[in-house]
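can u pls check wat happens w/ heme C
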Amino acid sequence: MKKLTLLPMAAMVGLLFFQGTTKPEVETAPNHLAMSPDMPENIKAIVDQKCYGCHNAESKNEKGKAKLDWDAFEASKKSKQMATKGKIAEVLEKGDMPPAKFLENKPEGKLSEAELATLMEWSAGKKKKTE
Ligand code: HEC
């Protein structure tokens, strides 16, 4: 009976095909910020956690929103982004952000040393030393 030998072969071929087409799971962590080629993932992650809450288009923090809106930043021109980055570097340098008043109630909102360094490097436009 030929049919009996064909069946396992068909199963094998099917299995190979199946393995060939299954892609590895891609991590798609939800992000509040839209995709932008100018925003590396590590920067986005920090901003999302530590800055975005006050600095977004829907923020109830009117002062914060007026000064910096990350959603608008994403959409703005390169020259505008450069200017904003300069401002960011400035406040980080002074340790003004997140605001001290806010940190009194939410100390976990503070930037870690590593996060601060990463944000500074990005906003000041310096290249990473480890590259
Ligand atoms: C608790 C809310 C809050 C968080 C969190 C926060 N900010 Fe702010 N931010 C403000 C407010 C309020 C102002 C306006 C301050 C003022 O006008 O005196 C501001 C102003 C700024 C400005 C404009 C400064 C200027 O003078 O133009 C920059 C840049 C900025 N923030 C960056 C950041 C960054 C970067 C982070 C994250 C590390 C961050 N902020 C996190 C509330 C916040």
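The longest helix spans residues 2-21.
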